[in-house]
Amino acid sequence: MPAIVIVGAQWGDEGKGKASDQLGTEVDYVVKFNGGNNAGHTVIVGEEKFALHLLPAGILTPGCTAVIGNGVVVDLEVLFQEKEALEARGVDTSLLRISSNAHIIPSYNKRIDGANERLLGKRKIGTTGRGIGPTYADKMNRIGIRVQDLFDPSILRQKVEGALHQKNNQLASLHSEETFDVDVVTNELLSYAERVRPMLINSSAELNKALDRGLTVVFEAGQAVMLDIDHGTYPYVTSSSTTAAGACTGSGVGPLRLDRVVGVAKAYITRVGEGPFPTELLDDAGDRLREVGGEYGTTTGRPRRCGWYDAVVARYAARINSLTDVVVTKLDVLTGLEEIPVCVAYEIDGERVEDMPENQSDMHHAAPIYEYLPGWSEDISMCRSFEELPANAQAYVLRLEELSGCRISSIGVGPERAQTIVRHTLLD
Ligand code: GDP
Ligand code: IMO
Ligand code: MG
């Protein structure tokens, strides 16, 4: 199975890192194609816990080439911090590669991210503050700085000067913030050039060649469909294309080369940051999910908002991404509940709605319509086959499958690599 895309099917933090890691040593390339160090992918290997932000989880797989694609925004300081921290723990990072077309997050965009949020006041997005939005805005505005610019100091300086012309104006007049010096910013960026040089690749050429040779390439998304710039709950979204289509634009591989699209979904749902969330629980049930599920952000440490599984979101994720498979994670977190609500549709202004509303106000008014499924009390963390699961847990998974319109190929019953039930292999 040469080309597999892994995407978030909810609002992020579904366990994409574990799903990617799980594919193991048959994977030749793993590609991050969107976002930056706003992501936080946790992978547990034996006794070791890794929290990856800018680097894809596949970096932990021996012999796998990890690619940062052209669709990613790169904080160079974080790139080397993360790389060196992994090396200090014995991880081989010599196969880390970066597209020369990837955009760089310059220091001024981190300042602007925070300033924009303050300016929005109570309409803030709740960003991770990593400069992601302003850097994608610069890309679209054609004033971005790319990795390849690091290798031509005079062009780099010209581009930084052009960008700062706008940025300093914005910082001083709109935000009353300190401005940036062209030479200081240019020299800071240049200081990374020689360390980046050995990692440079043309991601499109290399990945297409790899696929021609029949190698296995995994595209590991950051964020999720409901945070997608086009298809998410705009404006409460991130600024990149987080969906399967983003795997193409963010790496330079055409859509017909993708063989499988895997959506990762929790057996319930969480969200970090602001924005509508129909099944959100603001009571003890939400606190229970947060505590049992350890729902605190990997990147910012913020408590995640928690709610019941939302099949409207699941069907939407299947449609937008052409999902072929779903990986359901954290089924173990539901153990001990007497009954488990599952949202099957929304009620919006008195009407039953089965599909994701297009209109922002409708989404804000959406109330969940629940179906109640019986729970189970047996510990499932040691189950390794579907048949070993208690009957009610099996029925829960089968009902999610039916409601979501896509087969559930794998079920997570704990955070560790082995704590997974595989119903259909993703690699055939
Ligand atoms: P990602 O951003 O999609 O990679 O997800 P995160 O790593 O931010 O959050 C998922 C969290 O759930 C991590 O702490 C994982 O270790 C953990 N996790 C993943 N799968 C399971 C599972 O099946 N059961 C439990 N209990 N935890 C899981
Ligand atoms: P992973 O890959 C969950 C959210 C932020 C905020 C919004 C915009 O771990 O699933 P940004 O800094 O991207 O401009 O913030 O998006 N967000 C995430 N939420 N998981 C993530 O990544 C996220 N990356 C960004 O909380 O609401
Ligand atoms: Mg995460």
From TrEMBL:
It is an enzyme of class 6 (ligase). Mg(2+) binds at residues 13, 40. Binds 1 Mg(2+) ion per subunit. GO terms for molecular function: adenylosuccinate synthase activity; GTP binding; magnesium ion binding. The keyword Metal-binding applies. It is found in: Cytoplasm. Its cofactor is Mg(2+). IMP binds at residues 13-16, 38-41, 128, 142, 223, 238, 302. Homodimer. Plays an important role in the de novo pathway of purine nucleotide biosynthesis. Catalyzes the first committed step in the biosynthesis of AMP from IMP. This is Adenylosuccinate synthetase. It comes from Trueperella pecoris. The lineage of its organism: Bacteria, Bacillati, Actinomycetota, Actinomycetes, Actinomycetales.
